[in-house]
Protein backbone atom coordinates (compact mmCIF):
# COMPACT_ATOMS: atom_id res chain seq x y z
CA UNK A 1 0.00 0.00 0.00
CA UNK A 2 2.90 2.34 0.78
CA UNK A 3 0.85 5.30 2.04
CA UNK A 4 0.80 4.35 5.73
CA UNK A 5 2.41 1.54 7.72
CA UNK A 6 -0.74 1.28 9.82
CA UNK A 7 -2.79 0.54 6.70
CA UNK A 8 -0.19 -2.07 5.67
CA UNK A 9 -0.46 -3.70 9.09
CA UNK A 10 -4.26 -3.80 9.10
CA UNK A 11 -4.41 -5.07 5.52
CA UNK A 12 -1.71 -7.64 6.31
CA UNK A 13 -3.59 -9.04 9.30
CA UNK A 14 -6.85 -9.29 7.36
CA UNK A 15 -5.23 -10.85 4.29
CA UNK A 16 -3.25 -13.35 6.41
CA UNK A 17 -6.52 -14.41 8.04
CA UNK A 18 -8.08 -14.90 4.60
CA UNK A 19 -5.00 -16.87 3.53
CA UNK A 20 -5.16 -19.15 6.55
CA UNK A 21 -8.85 -19.77 5.89
CA UNK A 22 -8.13 -20.49 2.22
CA UNK A 23 -5.47 -23.03 3.21
CA UNK A 24 -7.92 -24.69 5.60
CA UNK A 25 -10.34 -25.30 2.74
CA UNK A 26 -7.87 -26.84 0.30
CA UNK A 27 -9.39 -30.00 -1.16
CA UNK A 28 -6.46 -31.33 -3.16
CA UNK A 29 -2.71 -30.71 -3.36
CA UNK A 30 -3.21 -29.01 -6.73
CA UNK A 31 -5.09 -26.19 -4.97
CA UNK A 32 -2.37 -25.53 -2.40
CA UNK A 33 -0.30 -23.01 -4.41
CA UNK A 34 -3.32 -20.89 -5.29
CA UNK A 35 -4.66 -21.00 -1.74
CA UNK A 36 -1.26 -19.88 -0.37
CA UNK A 37 -1.21 -16.65 -2.40
CA UNK A 38 -3.29 -14.56 0.05
CA UNK A 39 -1.11 -15.74 2.92
CA UNK A 40 2.07 -14.73 1.09
CA UNK A 41 0.60 -11.35 0.12
CA UNK A 42 -0.50 -10.74 3.72
CA UNK A 43 2.99 -11.55 5.01
CA UNK A 44 4.37 -9.13 2.42
CA UNK A 45 2.06 -6.39 3.73
CA UNK A 46 3.13 -7.02 7.33
CA UNK A 47 6.79 -7.00 6.33
CA UNK A 48 6.28 -3.70 4.53
CA UNK A 49 4.67 -2.19 7.64
CA UNK A 50 7.63 -3.18 9.82
CA UNK A 51 10.12 -1.85 7.26
CA UNK A 52 8.35 1.53 7.29
CA UNK A 53 8.13 1.56 11.09
CA UNK A 54 11.85 0.77 11.22
CA UNK A 55 12.67 3.61 8.84
CA UNK A 56 10.59 5.95 11.00
CA UNK A 57 12.33 4.74 14.18
CA UNK A 58 9.19 3.25 15.78
CA UNK A 59 10.58 -0.29 16.16
CA UNK A 60 13.96 -1.53 17.31
CA UNK A 61 16.82 -1.87 14.88
CA UNK A 62 16.80 -5.67 15.14
CA UNK A 63 13.11 -5.80 14.15
CA UNK A 64 13.85 -3.49 11.24
CA UNK A 65 16.74 -5.72 10.11
CA UNK A 66 14.52 -8.81 10.21
CA UNK A 67 11.82 -7.01 8.21
CA UNK A 68 14.38 -5.81 5.65
CA UNK A 69 15.78 -9.34 5.38
CA UNK A 70 12.26 -10.72 4.77
CA UNK A 71 11.55 -8.03 2.16
CA UNK A 72 14.84 -8.82 0.44
CA UNK A 73 14.03 -12.54 0.47
CA UNK A 74 10.61 -11.89 -1.10
CA UNK A 75 12.17 -9.72 -3.82
CA UNK A 76 14.89 -12.29 -4.53
CA UNK A 77 12.30 -15.07 -4.81
CA UNK A 78 10.20 -12.98 -7.19
CA UNK A 79 13.23 -12.18 -9.34
CA UNK A 80 14.25 -15.85 -9.52
CA UNK A 81 10.71 -16.80 -10.45
CA UNK A 82 10.55 -14.10 -13.12
CA UNK A 83 13.82 -15.21 -14.71
CA UNK A 84 12.80 -18.85 -14.75
CA UNK A 85 9.48 -17.89 -16.39
CA UNK A 86 11.09 -15.86 -19.17
CA UNK A 87 11.39 -17.59 -22.55
CA UNK A 88 15.19 -17.43 -22.44
CA UNK A 89 15.36 -18.83 -18.92
CA UNK A 90 13.07 -21.78 -19.52
CA UNK A 91 14.39 -25.25 -19.92
CA UNK A 92 12.50 -28.28 -21.05
CA UNK A 93 11.22 -30.22 -18.12
CA UNK A 94 12.09 -33.90 -18.08
CA UNK A 95 8.40 -34.74 -17.91
CA UNK A 96 7.62 -32.84 -21.13
CA UNK A 97 6.48 -35.25 -23.78
CA UNK A 98 8.27 -35.19 -27.10
CA UNK A 99 6.23 -35.01 -30.27
CA UNK A 100 5.63 -38.45 -31.68
CA UNK A 101 7.55 -38.95 -34.90
CA UNK A 102 5.59 -39.76 -38.01
CA UNK A 103 6.70 -42.72 -40.09
CA UNK A 104 8.78 -41.52 -43.04
CA UNK A 105 6.36 -42.72 -45.71
CA UNK A 106 3.25 -41.20 -44.11
CA UNK A 107 1.33 -38.23 -45.52
CA UNK A 108 1.95 -36.16 -42.39
CA UNK A 109 5.72 -36.63 -42.71
CA UNK A 110 5.63 -35.63 -46.38
CA UNK A 111 3.49 -32.56 -45.60
CA UNK A 112 5.84 -31.28 -42.89
CA UNK A 113 8.99 -31.87 -44.94
CA UNK A 114 7.90 -29.51 -47.74
Q: Can you give a write-up of this model?
A:
- The mean pLDDT is 81.
- This protein is mainly alpha-helical and 114 residues long.
- It has helices at residues 5-24, 32-56, 61-85, 107-113.
- Helix 1 runs antiparallel to helix 2 (32-56) and helix 2 (32-56) packs across helix 3 (61-85).
- The chain has one domain (5-85).
- The protein contains 4 helices and no strands.
Query: Which percent range describes the beta-strand content?
Result: under 5%
Count of individual domains: 1
- What is the element string, with H for helices and E for strands? HHHH
Which structural class fits the helix and strand makeup? mainly alpha
Question: What profile does the largest beta sheet have?
Answer: none
Count of discrete alpha- or pi-helical segments spanning 4 or more residues: 4
Count of DSSP E strands?
A: 0
The oligomerization state is single chain
Termini, distance in Å?
A: 57 Å
Mean pLDDT: 81
Helix content: 55-70%
Instruction: Please tell me how large the radius of gyration is.
Output: 23 Å
Low-confidence stretches: none
The shape, in one word, is flat
Features:
single chain, mainly alpha, 0% strand, flat
Task: Set out the fold topology.
Layout: H1 5-24, H2 32-56, H3 61-85, H4 107-113
Task: Summarize this entry quickly.
By secondary structure, the protein is an all-alpha fold. Helices cover 68% and strands 0% of the residues.
